[in-house]
Amino acid sequence: MDKIVSLCKRRGFIFPSSEIYGGLGSSYDYGHYGVLFKNHVKAQWWRSMLQERDDILALDSAIIQHPQTWVASGHLAGFTDPLVDCRTCKLRFRADKLDEAQCGRKPSKHPGETPDCDLTDARDFNLLFETTVGPVKEEGSTVYLRPETAQGIFLNFRNYMQFGRKKPPFGIAQIGKSFRNEITTGNFIFRTREFEQMEMEFFVPPDQAQMWFEHWLEQRMNWYVNLGIRPDHLQLRAHDPDELSHYSSATSDVEYRFPIGWSELEGIANRGDFDLQAHAQHSGQKLEYVDSASGERYVPHVIEPAAGADRALLAFMVDAYDEDEIEGERRTVLRLHPVLAPVKVAVLPLVRKDGQPELAAEIYRELSEQVQAEYDEGGAIGRRYRRQDEIGTPWAVTVRQPGAGAIPDRRAGRGDRAAAAGAVALTEAQRRRVTSMLTTSDTVAGAGRCSARTSTLWAGSSVMLHEPSAPVVPLAMVLRGPPERR
Ligand code: ATP
Fold first, then answer.
1. pLDDT digit string (tens) for 174-228?
2. How many Å apart are CA 423 and CA 352, to the nearest integer?
3. Which of the listed residues 178, 196, 264, 265 should we mutate to test ligand 1's pocket, taking the one with most ligand atoms within 8 A of CB?
């Protein structure tokens, strides 16, 4: 995990928040590449929910909702974690996650593992963040930052029945920030107090709940695998009956083999009709489905896949992280699936003269109309390739002298400076070729194995299209199976 944290900081993915004031524990800021990367993770989630099926609608509800929401949902009374204090080191820990925490005196041990640890009995600690609306703190002004996005969906169920004219089974999906006053944070962005969730509530006829629960277990496992996570680094774990939340009749976690061990990436729960019934009772509104033709009415049951955008990003990053050695030099490569890569293509003039920067800039401008591209002319070509490798850029276009010796191999990490002396402008046809290869959706989705085409297409021209450093999957496999790993 230390290597991931240091790469994230070094390459501007994620920084500790408020660093100039000494930092604020487990609060993080996403930098340029982190923003691009997380946007791609969220875009793929939206795509799987909205574009690839026609039974789900989108929502973006408020973070601060009516405080009754949290009475009805059970969060005010029961959204607690068991808290223990250590009388020796004076730190507080979550009793059921001691294996994720470090002992205050011996960080290599978990709390309770040394003879000096003196833990109190566990007591309940409510995780809701409380704040006040309006200028005066008075009765009725207390509100809460939402601890999950799901409740906003239930509050809008009636709106969707009217405007969406959907009949169960159908879903409502949303992505947004959630806040939990976690007792033990840590392990980088795995557990923070402010995080983004990607949640979908799927409303079904009660007798179909089990079938849809199984459907979503399969769909959600496939989502991670299709985006490059190695299947043997993923597992489904069904909750034991005593572990189930108050609303759930069945929950399974998608777990990933993080460096801290197998841990939850996403929870998939059968929430039954708990939420709609509770909000109907507290609001006095009818929250049910009525079939206008047959008059049939019922309260739908809900299947909920609830994922974390930050945890997903961390898993994609851990799984893609690789190091290799080229001629005695160690290199870090993020073998991200191309759809998740922050930058899709880097355009690099081999040298900063002979018209190469101008030509590269022109190609860059053309490509960046279609995909996230980056232009880089500073420093040795090998170092520039390595910079792109570290941020997971799958393709690189290098502008160089035509027909002069070997192609600088991106994987070898070294440029062929001697060969550079005057670039030749691309023909119109060649330019179109570069643009279409890099911008057609199937290529960006990983359909083209550029290496196979490199020599035939570009040998003798002034532009080299380099082999992706990432796993490349044929489009058909994007939907079906895991990407190849080198
Ligand atoms: P955990 O057992 O790890 O506390 P949870 O079961 O409480 O998680 P859910 O309420 O099911 O989590 O939330 C759905 C998803 O939201 C989680 O699978 C995770 O990806 C994400 N998530 C929850 N809490 C956090 C957090 N504190 N920091 C980052 N992501 C989180």
1. 999 999 998 876 688 999 999 999 999 999 999 999 999 999 999 999 999 999 8
2. 11
3. 264
Is 306 near ligand 1, meaning CB less than 6 Å away?
yes
**Distance of CA 191 from the midpoint of ligand 1 (Å):** 7
Q: Cα separation of 205 and 150, whole Å?
A: 19
65's CB contacts (< 8 A; 6+ apart) are 143, 144, 146, 151, 152, 155
How many Cα atoms are found within 13 Å in the side-chain-facing hemisphere of 153? 27
Q: Whose CA is nearest to atom 21 of ligand 1?
A: 308
Tokens for 136? 């005066």
Give the total residue count for the chain: 486
Alpha-helix runs per DSSP H in 30-119: 32-46, 68-72, 75-78
Query: How many C-beta atoms surround the C-beta of residue 392 within 10 A?
Result: 28
Ligand 1, atom 7, lies closest to the CA of 267
Ligand 1, atom nearest to 193 Cα: 27
Residue 175 CB less than 6 A away from ligand 1: no
Query: Could you read off the pLDDT of 40-91 as tens digits, one per residue?
Result: 999 999 999 999 999 999 999 999 999 999 999 999 888 888 888 888 988 8
- Model pTM score: 0.83
- Cβ–ligand 1 contact at 197 (below 6 Å): yes
Which mutation among 149, 151, 195 tests ligand 1's pocket best, with the greatest number of atoms within 8 A of CB? Answer: 195
> Hey, what long-range contacts does 101-106 have (CB within 8 A, 24 or more apart)?
101/184, 101/186, 102/186
CB within 8 Å of 110: residues ≥ 6 apart: 98, 99, 101, 102, 103
Start-to-end C-alpha separation, the chain:
22
Phi-psi region of 42 (alpha: psi -120 to 50; beta: other; left: phi over 0): alpha
Ligand 1 atom closest to Cα of residue 312: 20
Q: Which two tokens stand for residue 446?
A: 């990983």
Burial annotation 317-350 (CB, 10 A radius, 16+ → b, else e): bbbbbeeeeeeeeebbbbbbbbbbbbbbbbbbbb
For residue 154, give Cα distances in angstroms to 201, 280, 287, 406, 461: 8, 10, 9, 61, 59
Q: Are strands 80-85 and 92-94 parallel, antiparallel or unpaired?
A: antiparallel
Of the candidates 43, 51, 481, the residue with the CA atom closest to the CA atom of residue 224 = 481
Q: Are 107 and 116 in contact (CB under 8 A)?
A: no
Q: Which residue has the tokens 């980088």?
A: 188
Tokens 């330019």, located at residue: 431
Assess whether the C-beta atom of 183 lies below 6 angstroms from ligand 1.
Answer: no
264 lines ligand 1 (CB under 6 A): yes
Is any ligand 1 atom within 6 A of the Cβ of residue 97?
A: no
Q: How far is the centre of ligand 1, averaged over its atoms, from the C-alpha of 256 (Å)?
A: 13
